[in-house]
Amino acid sequence: MPVVSTIRAIGHRIVDAVWRIGVAARFFFLTLLYSGNSFRRFHLIIKELFSTGVMSLIIIVVAGLFVGMVLGLQGYETLKRYGSESALGVMVALGLVRELGPVMAALLFASRAGSAMTAEIGLMKATEQISAMEMMAVNPIARIVAPRFWAGVISMPLLAALFSAVGIFGGYLVGVVQIGVDEGSFWSQMQAAVDFREDIMNGVIKSLVFGIVVTVIALFEGFDAPPTAEGVSGATTRTVVTSSLAILMLDFVMTAIMFRGA
Amino acid sequence: MGRTTLDLWVGMFVVAGIAALVMLAMKVGNLGTYNVSETYQVHAYFSNIGGLKPKASIRSAGVLVGRVTSISLDTERYEANVVMSLDKRYQFPKDTFANILTSGLLGEQYIGLMPGGETEMLKNGEQLKQTQSAMVLEDLIGKFMYSKASEATK
């Protein structure tokens, strides 16, 4: 019966997917549970902050500058049609603070730092370092996973804020310095339109959520990877794909909740 | 890499991130120009508010003196009830005139206050009696067409 076997295959896939989500959730709660230890040994988090946060700085800053400059150019071309070039600052700032800052920074973070995390943990598993830790009665979640998790959660909002700030500077460079939009109206209209709680804090909340999601996906994929060269490469790819999709979908959901009235 | 250089880099990263956040809040957002503590509230009825929105600015002689707090429809009078909070530093006479104005041709709408000659000042919770509604473009065009038509029949 081909129909029965097709339905069985679908069921198998679904059960597998739900099971994996369950394992990932359990992994997340274990990470939170053992986080106390990693705060007591804060230098572990600092070391991970260096490799996830500081090393992502260059890509974030350069990407932010160029995204801001493109926004300035394109925004100017569009706003010129309606004779409201002075609203360029509002457009650049709201676009960056609400959407592009958190989302682009999270996408870059997922491919820059998330993939590295997955590969590192996957290789640790493949070379049996994790089993060795367990043999020495060292909890690998407390020693390896939790510091990386907190480093990701701490650095993500900071990177998103840097991205937005540099992007606004890029928009300023193109809009005011190059094209010649009035500087006063650029900043004053921006300040009148951007609300601290509504826009900036919601952007920070978004980037915090993205930080949690991306690091949990990256760490789980690494921890769950089959201990072979092929398995690690597959897990790294899955980290980037899954976290990028998760970022974009969650962004839609959060935007729908946060900015419905505005 | 040594412990101290590592700490230095991470410290610089965190400081830069927080500085970016503060810069966003002060320079880009409205936190720098925000003082909610010292305000008093007045309200006014308008027969049409046009496109006025909460948080729209209230200006007198072009100076920002407050913001619109809330807008609702009063079902007893069928007029819009606009609550505004004004800065304590600026006191206005009781017969102050409230206009809904537009900045630029298609810009956002704001309330302009024109002080009257009364010696008594407005207190918290009081009402601005004299108001003028927003200019609605369709009404203007309608009036224009009507006057043109009546000219033509003469």
What does this structure look like?
Chain A is built from ten helices and no strands. Chain A has helices at residues 2-33, 35-40, 42-52, 57-81, 88-126, 129-135, 140-179, 183-193, 196-224, 229-258. Chain A starts with a helix and ends with a helix. Chain B has 154 residues and is an alpha/beta fold. Chain B is 28% helix and 32% strand. Chain B has an eight-stranded mixed β-sheet with strand order 7-1-4-3-2-6-5-8, with no helix packed on it. Chain B is elongated and about 95 Å long. In chain B, 21% of the residues are buried. Chains A and B meet through helix 3, helix 7, helix 8 and helix 9 of A and helix 1 of B.
What are its keywords?
heterodimer; A: 262 residues; mainly alpha; 88% helix; B: 154 residues; alpha/beta; 2 helices; 32% strand
At a glance:
Chain A has helices at residues 2-33, 35-40, 42-52, 57-81, 88-126, 129-135, 140-179, 183-193, 196-224, 229-258. By secondary structure, chain A is mainly α.
What portion of residues of chain B is helical? 25-40%
**Class by alpha and beta content of chain A:** mainly alpha
Order of helices and strands of chain B: HEEEEEEEEH
> What gyration radius of chain B follows from the Cα positions, in whole Å?
23 Å
**What percentage of amino acids of chain A are in beta strands?**
under 5%
Helix/strand order of chain A: HHHHHHHHHH
Distance between the termini of chain A: 55 Å
Instruction: Indicate the mean pLDDT of chain A.
Output: 91
Query: What is the C-alpha radius of gyration of chain A, as a whole number of Å?
Result: 22 Å
Largest sheet of chain A: none
Fraction in helix of chain A:
over 70%
